[in-house]
Every structure is written in structure tokens, then in C-alpha cells.
Amino acid sequence: MQIVICGAGLVGTSIAEHLAHENNDVTIIDQNPALVRKISENLDVRGVVGLASFPNILEQAGIRDADMLIAVTFADEVNMVACQIAHSLFDVPLKIARVRQQEYLQPIWADLFSRDNMPIDHIISPEIEVARAINRRLSVPGALDVVSMADGLAVVVGVRCDDSCPIIDTPLKQLTELFPDLWMTILAIIRDGVGIVPSSQEMLQQGDEVYIVCDLAHLSRAMAAFGHEETEARRIVIAGAGNIGLKLTEEIEREHPGVSVRLIEVNPERAKFVAQALPKSVILNGDILDSDILDEAGISSAETFISVSNDDEVNFISCLLAKRYGVSRTIALINKLTYAPLIRSLGIDVAVNPRVITVSSILQHVRRGRIRGLHSVQEDFGEVIEVEVLETSPLAGKTVSEVKLPDGVMLGVRLRDQEIRVVRGNTDFLAGDRLVLFATYEAVKKVEKLFAVRFDFF
User: Which domains does the chain carry?
Assistant: First the structure.
């Protein structure tokens, strides 16, 4: 597949790395010669220096033969124009654009990105995606990560094994005996920063971060099996009223009417604007690192503190302050992956990385086959994928024991006739079934071939 990526920033580079490792023909465009040179030297991609919205630059990048354009430059307008030109002049089948300015995304302008106006097939808004990701974590107390799949009937949850976890040092094959009626599968384990696709002999250790998939109706029992029976927060303090803070508070007001939110913003004009947009929440103007503001926000009585400012260091420090005030759960927005090893040692409960979330959203539209959902598990490890079994799939009409799965693949649950079932050795597959599975990045191409080898998204 030939793909042109506009923008060699963190997101563009991450996408290029994933796609290049899967033997796609990738070209990346950026105005910064140093960024283009760096990515060309480190990855098997071609680099073009120039403005991505110029037709001649796109043509130089091979847009005439491209199957897809992914526009993730820092300028929304450049992303949108690049997609328009790719459609109007070069008839590119699939166009994806990152659009950050919320003014473009208001419902009143919903027709802006239609095929007759500005034909962009998929719009990715990092701020909206991050706000939704944090809100999902609020809905499952104790979870590090949460994503809904299979029409909401299944849920993928990341959970940490603390010292209170009752199944530490228990072989995974015994979990079925311990919880025979619990529809849950352990898909992946992160141990000391290293990803593991678990075997039946694997035993969980204290500090492991475990990704499970289960029937939504069994979620509470699944969390309890890992020692997490926390109650949902009713009092939340949020630091940072930028686009993420605003969208997150809007979601909480809409979906959690019984939850009290206090939002702290250092910029007085922004605080005034947000106060008008959020009539149900309390907006405070001040520095989140100021103890007086924290006291005014009632931090000592809050159950959850969320810091989503534009400054990683402020997010770190404010979470540490919240812990000193007795807040039981802290969530920090962290852009720099180099800080990841510090999360646990500093006592921050959950770190949310916008780049990983944005890349997941984009890759969902890139994968071949009937991909219904996708979620990255650690940037360099793998993906949880929801895929539909087609008649052309080698799985159709067979059981698990009759199919040789690629290394690095763990099947989770099957959805058939709106019913979730854990995949076992005797589980059969029919055309139309949907599966939730985990695949390492090395195995993704093999998974695509296993389920379908054709461009179903075209």
C-alpha cells in the first residue's frame, strides 16, 4: 500500500514507523529539512521537504499513485487543503486529517467535510479523543485504560496488579477454574515496561499492567478479580481548561449528572469563557500549584484529580500535590514518553498520552480487512483489534484448534447474535462473527491476511 503522510512531528513519525515496519510504501512531507532527514535516516520511508498543501509537493511525494493520504501537520488548514487537493486533482481513495481547532468541528458546520464540499473521509480531533479516553477511565474506577468494543457489549480494560490483587502468582490456566462463569480473557501483560503475550503457564506478578477483555455485564466481577472494587468518584477537580479540559468537563456534565466538577484555569480570559460554556460546573481562576486555589477547589474532599494542562511538569507536580491532600486517584496528561518510567515511582495512578491515542484513532482507518475497532497497547508493543470474520477468511467454518494462529496473537472474545463468548480451543467461527483479539505489531500483517486480504474500506 502506498501512503503519503503530511507532517513529520511526533504523530506523523509514529504512524510512519508503524506503517513502514509493515512493509508499506511510505512517503512523508514536512517543511523542516532536519525532521525529514532524521526520519529518512531512521526509517525505511522517503522524505520530501516542502509545504504539504502545495500540489507540486504532493505530486513529488507520489500522490498520483497513493492509496491513502494522512495529514497530521501542525496547521489544520494545511491538513484540510492537502486532503482537498488529493481528492480534486489526484483522486486519492482515502483521506484522513487531524483537525484540532474546535471551531471547525461544531455540529452546525457538519456538512463542511462532506464529499461535495471538503472531502475528508475521517477527521481526527486529538482533544476530543483524549477527553473521551479520560472519561472512559472515570467510568471504570481502578482502570488504567478503557475502550469499548463489539457494539458496547465487550470492554477492554487495562488494570494494575497491586499488592491486594488476589490472583498474583496464579497460573493463568487456573483462572478458568477459579472463575468458571466469568467471561474474561487476559490479552497482554506489561511487566517493567516490556510487553508479554501470555501463555497458559504465565503467572501475574505485583506491578504488572494487565489488559483484559470481558463481557460488559461481567466487568465489575472482572475488576474485583484483580482486587479493584473502587467506587466511582462523585467529586472531581480538573486542572487546565484548554480544549481537553473543556471537552472532558462537558462529557462529565452530560454523562455523569451526579458528579461535582471544579475546573481550575490560570488564564483569566479563558476561565471566563469556559465559565459561560459550563454552567453546571465551578470554574476557578488561578494557578493549580497554589495551595490557596487547591483549598478553594476543595481538593481535600475530592476523590479524583485530573491534570490536563499544556505543561507535563505542571501535570506531574499538581498530581503529587493532590496526593498529599489525600486524593485517592490522580490522572495526568503526559506528552513526553520519556516520563513514562516515572509514573509509578511518583505515585501517579494513570497517565494519558495524546500521541498514542491519536495514532490509535488513525491506524483504525488504515488497517486492511473489516476492522471495526483498534486500540494501541503501549506504543511499541501491539494493538487490541476488533475484526469481522469474512467468508474469505481462513477462520470461517473452523474452530480455534483447527487454525494455526500467528505468534504474537491472543484471541479474546467472540460476538455472535449480540452475545459475547470467551474464545476457547473448541470455539467455532462463522462469517459475520466479530472477534476482539490482541496482536503484536510484528503480527499485525499476518492478522490482516488471516481475516481478509482486500481493501474493504475503499
Answer: 2-124 (3.40.50.720), 130-225 (3.30.70.1450), 237-334 (3.40.50.720), 358-451 (3.30.70.1450)
